[in-house]
Amino acid sequence: MSKFVPDKVFLRGVLLHYFNMNKSAAEAHRILVDVYSEHALAEQTCRKWFARFKVGDFDLDDKERPGQPKKFEDNDLQALLNENSCQTLKELSTSLEVDFSTIGKRLKSLGMIQKEGHWVPYELK
């Protein structure tokens, strides 16, 4: 058995192929399940892509989602910490021009905590 694991863009390309062969979304889904088993797209996802193809949208990439975009990248925050790990939330927020609560949430998601005045990974390795 092949060890190939398809990614979602590959599977969307396969769906486009079946769409061009005049298969239904349900037929395409059955074929994907037969070939890729647990890696196949859900039937509802296949239907969604077929609906996009029917209106002439053949772009296989994800569409932009609603919501607020990131105001800064994690790399920007990490660079500031590498420069000086003793900075306070207020200093970091001023440097990145965002609210200090945003910095706090991002540091938490990065697994960083402040110990003895320095920002360090929660689990030191």
Automatic annotation (TrEMBL):
Signal peptide residues on this chain, from the entry's feature table: none
GO CC term (a single one): nucleus
Alphabetical GO biological process terms: DNA double-strand break processing; DNA integration; double-strand break repair via nonhomologous end joining; mitotic DNA integrity checkpoint signaling; replication fork processing
Entries under Pfam families matching the protein: HTH_48
Residues in Mos1 transposase HTH domain copies: 8-57
InterPro entries in UniProt: Mos1_HTH (IPR041426), Transposase-MT_Hybrid (IPR052709), WH-like_DNA-bd_sf (IPR036388)
Single GO MF annotation: single-stranded DNA binding
Highest taxon of source: Eukaryota
Coiled-coil stretches: none
Protein known as: Mariner Mos1 transposase
Organism: Acromyrmex echinatior
